[in-house]
Amino acid sequence: MAAKTQKFILFFINDEMWATPLTFGNQFISYDQPVPLPDVSKEVTGLIYGGGHIVTLLDTAKILAIRSHSKQYETCLRFDFNSDHYGLLVDAGGETVKVNRVLTDRNKKEFKKYIKFKNNKIYILYPEDIWNKLSIYD
Amino acid sequence: MKVAETKIYLKFISWFVAVSLLPIALLFLIIYTFSPDSSVLLDPELQKIILVSVFISIALIFILSLAATRHLSRLITKPIQGSMGELSKVVDELFKSIQDLSDVSQNNSELSQFLIHSSQAQQKGLKTGTKVVSEMVQSLDQIARKTKVSARNTKKIADLANEGGVKSNVALDSLVVVKQLSTENQKLSQALDAYAFKVKDIAKRVGILAETAKFLSLNVSIEANKTSFSENFSSLISQIRELNVTSEQAANSIQGLAGDMQRQIEQSKQSSIHEWQQTNKTIKVIGQTINFLSGIVGNVSNVSKSTQVISQEAEETHREADNINSMIGGLNKEAKSLVKYIDDITKTIYKQLTVTKSLHKSSAALNKVTDTLNDLVGKK
Asked: pLDDT tens digits, residue range A30-53?
């Protein structure tokens, strides 16, 4: 049985490469000033308007619990989930890659899945993992 | 006490007594000689009468002698008394005159001493004056020499100041040209700054273009992976990626170049502004220097005039000092003569004093004689 090929979009945070699965709504977009939202968790940066849609921006570094070096993001990777549009704040966009295998790092408690690209481990941010970490739907 | 008069009285009285008693004594002697046995004198009555007569005659003689003596003495002493009175007055006058003469001599002596001291002081003063005038003449000579040197130096300073003024004017003209050039340079810098700003804007636009190309490249890659396309589209994606890389490099290069350009233009602008400001300051300073030099020239001219006046005055003062010196010489001679005269006067005064003392002694002796005579004539 042939292995199922999966596609991932790579992006950088603090010169570290991360990956997210390729979905229909994926697109790298730029933004200037997000509109802040009241009474939301600290991972939600605000709202922007792009490509005819209202996009909710998520602070990827805070979701991953890493300290971001960037003072202000200018690029986000848009993805769709449950007909809503979200954007992951990234330092820079990367290539779109195809892989045959998704691996699991059992030593990690969250974001365990990873792929191998150019002999590097690249951990994957699945939207489900994000919603596990971030309770956006009350 | 009228001693003389009393003596006269006594002499006269004794003479009258002798004269009055001598005939009686002769009578008794004759009687005793020629008739020693006569008993005439033995009669007590007669003896009494004789004694009373003798007594009365003696008394009369005494009274008459007194009266005669008094009359005679008055006749003799009256003119003497008058003369003595005159003599006393003369003696008093003489005494007063001698006293006055003594006072005058004393004053003359003091005056003479004072004159001697004054003459000596005058001589000393004249010596000092001569010395001072000599030193003054030397100083004036030096002043005259220095003044001449100062006048020459002042002229040099004036020439130098004039030259400095001319050179400063030339420098000022050059600086005005430099200022104009700086202004032009500043304008050029401003123009370049505007160009740099435009280039920076273009670079920014290129950056945005590169950013767009990057997003295009990324998103085209994503879209290409969403569905399968032909080899040609994959080639197109590769070309877009290359375009992205190239445009990013070009944008970086242009931005770096624009940044460098703007920095250099900014530096040039700052230098130009600094140069302009410095030139302005220098022009101001040179203007002040020119004014200052003009002031120096004016003042040096005044100083030169003053120096000439000082030189003339020094020469005149020198001549006057010579006159003073010769005058002091004359005065010195006069003072020496004066001292000599004063010495002579002093000697005369001493002689006068000696004479006055002798006169004083003579007056005292005369006074004594007058007193004696007064005693003799019975006048106080």
From this structure: 888 899 999 888 899 999 998 788
Q: Do B225 and A96 touch (CB under 8 A)?
A: yes
Whether residues A22 and B214 touch (CB distance < 8 A) is answered with no
Average pLDDT over residues A106-131: 91
From A35, A27, A82, select the one nearest A57 (Cα to Cα). A35
pLDDT digits (tens, 9 = 90+) for B341-380: 777 877 887 787 788 788 878 878 887 887 777 777 666 5
CB A71 within 8 A of CB A103: no
Chain B residue with CA closest to A77: the answer is: B219
The domain segmentation of chain A, as residue ranges, is: 6-133
Q: B309-336 burial string, b = 16+ CB within 10 Å, else e?
A: ebbeebeebbebbeebbeebeebbeebe
Please give the mean pLDDT across all residues of chain B.
Answer: 78
Q: pLDDT-derived band of residue B1, with 50, 70 and 90 as boundaries?
A: very low
- CB atoms closer than 10 angstroms to residue B233: 14
pLDDT bracket for residue B38 (50, 70, 90): low
Cα distance between residue B96 and residue B98, in whole Å: 5
Domain boundaries, chain B: 3-377
Looking at domain B3-377, its CATH superfamily turns out to be Methyl-accepting chemotaxis protein (1.10.287.950)
The CATH code that applies to domain A6-133 is 2.40.50.180
CA atoms within 13 Å, Cβ hemisphere of B265:
20
State how far Cα B215 lies from the chain centre: 105
Q: What is the DSSP letter of A23?
A: -
Q: For residues B165 and B292, what is the distance between their CA atoms, to the nearest angstrom?
A: 9
DSSP B251-292: HHHHHHHHHHHHHHHHHHHHHHHHHHHHHHHHHHHHHHHHHH
Any CB–CB contact under 8 A between A7 and chain B? yes
Pairing of strands A53-58, A84-90: parallel
Nearest to B222 among A75, A96, A98 (CB): A96
pLDDT at residue B316 greater than cutoff 90: no
From the CA of B215, how many Å to the nearest CA of chain A?
Answer: 6
Q: Rounded CA gap, B179 and B185, in Å? A: 9
Cα–Cα nearest to B211, from B248, B240, B246, B256 = B248
Residue B256 has pLDDT above 80, yes or no: yes
> Hey, is the C-beta of A95 within 8 angstroms of any chain B C-beta?
yes
Mean pLDDT of the B265-271 span: 79
